[in-house]
Amino acid sequence: MAKPDNRADNVEHLQQSIQNTQENLQEAEGYLNEFSSELDSKERNQIEDKNARRKESIRSFKEEVKDEAAHSEN
Prior knowledge:
The protein is built from two helices and no strands. With 74 residues, the chain is mainly alpha-helical. The chain is elongated, with a radius of gyration of 17 Å. It starts with 9 loop residues before the first helix and ends with a helix.
């Protein structure tokens, strides 16, 4: 039997994911700022690409939080 859809803590989980992703983004940006001159272009591009994906994930998480908030109002 399938588990019932319990969305009670979805916003909390999403907010934790946003926070973790923001921390990873900031850490990677700090790393780039500090060691950029020592990195080869491939590694620098990989980090920049990953940060772009992190920013997109944060945007998506925030949209999901809005959706969850709207769902909980119903």
